[in-house]
Amino acid sequence: MNLFETTAYAAQAAGPGSEPVWINLVMLGGFVLIFYFMLIRPQNKRRKEHDALVSSLGKGDEVVTAGGIVGQITKVEDDFVKLQVSGDVEMRIQRSAIGATLPKGTIKSLGD
Domain containing 88: what range? Predict the structure, then answer.
């Protein structure tokens, strides 16, 4: 009995009973569909909703930014909006940073 000698065993060759290639392609296609419906499609839907929100902004709308700043839009420019956050304080915010619009009167109900 020699401990340093290794024995190689031949793997069985794939016979006529092996899986067809099209099954692997169907599985790959299934994974692509799962990723599309679980990840890509919902993200595109959210992006379209946000683009519609940003394009519909107008003077007098009450909004909250992605950073949590609440204010009323006083001026709409190409890529920016002026947001009145308190009394005489106005901030210029990028339109894409607007997170949501609020119902009219929300700022007054928050209490200045």
Answer: 57-110
